[in-house]
Amino acid sequence: MIKILRDLNAYFDRQSKLSIMLISIALVILLGVLDYLTGDLSLLVFIFVPLFLATWFVGKTAGFIIILISTILTPIVDLLAPGSSACSTTYEWDLFSKLLFFVIVVYCLSELKDTLRREAELARRDSLTGVFNGRAFVDLARREINRAQRYSRPFAFAYMDIDNFKEVNDTFGHNAGDTVLQIFSEAIKNNIRTVDIFARLGGDEFALLLPETKPEETKVVIERLRNLVMDALRKNGWSVTFSIGVATFLKAPEVVDEMIKRSDALMYSAKKSGKNMIKYEVCE
């Protein structure tokens, strides 16, 4: 069931919320017309289709709008029906019961979707630092590469590694190492654009992808981030350095691995040259 919901969510996420809402309203009206024409169609059963569409793919408010429309439509249809009992106390109580039931359904659907969304987001996040993990980064980087290829836009990719991080763990303990990673991540995460993609690839290795960034802009951004991170670490009592390999792609590579290998090689070159430095390359 959960898999079906996720598949449906992936499909309808590609549709506009307005179109889904219009479809849901049209279905409610169609059900009302069919109910009037047949005289025996139970809206209690079929209303779940537009109710589910609106709540799951548009939002809780949309679900309540569908309930409101169906609540208005139902007594109108029943009043027009021959031998109507729409004005009786029993009918009013029955209508109220249905309304309450639909409200509970909307609330439960909304909570279920929020839970699934939170689980999906947690699966894409590094538990220690809160930034994207390696798997999420590969997915996001692949999308950016495809976009860069389509529109012929440059982008930069930085591979970052904390120098002598093992010594921090060995000397001060893993809690101290975790603190360094958290300070490092927080300093970068709070000083990049919303379109930039920052992730922890594993251990003390991090990745930063800067969409639509030219070589001269890349150097300014990376140097600024390096200084900000160094300041943040020093303020917290850590004189830790790091090495960075930065590749700016004027033409997007074919695959994510190619991008990572280029910057990874630059980062290791920085380490071999004495650490605590940045190596740049422009890839055409």
What does this structure look like?
By secondary structure, the protein is of the alpha+beta class. The protein folds into two domains: 2-123, no CATH class; 134-283, Reverse transcriptase/Diguanylate cyclase domain (Alpha-Beta Plaits, 2-Layer Sandwich). It contains eleven helices and five strands, in the order H-H-H-H-H-H-H-E-H-H-E-E-H-E-H-E. It has helices spanning 2-12, 17-38, 43-46, 48-57, 60-80, 89-123, 134-151, 165-172, 174-189, 215-235, 256-272; strands at residues 155-162, 197-202, 205-211, 242-249, 278-283. It has a five-stranded mixed sheet, with helices on both faces. Helix 8 crosses helix 9 (174-189). The longest helix is centred in the middle third of the chain and has 35 residues, at 89-123. It is elongated. The mean pLDDT is 84.
The sequence of SSEs as H and E is HHHHHHHEHHEEHEHE
Question: Could you give the order of strands across the largest sheet?
Answer: 2-3-1-4-5
Main sheet summary: 5 strands, mixed
Number of strands: 5
> Number of folding domains?
2
CATH superfamily of the largest domain: Reverse transcriptase/Diguanylate cyclase domain
Strand content: 5-15%
CA-atom Rg in angstroms:
28 Å
Helix content: 55-70%
Q: What is the mean pLDDT?
A: 84
CATH class category label of the largest domain: Alpha Beta
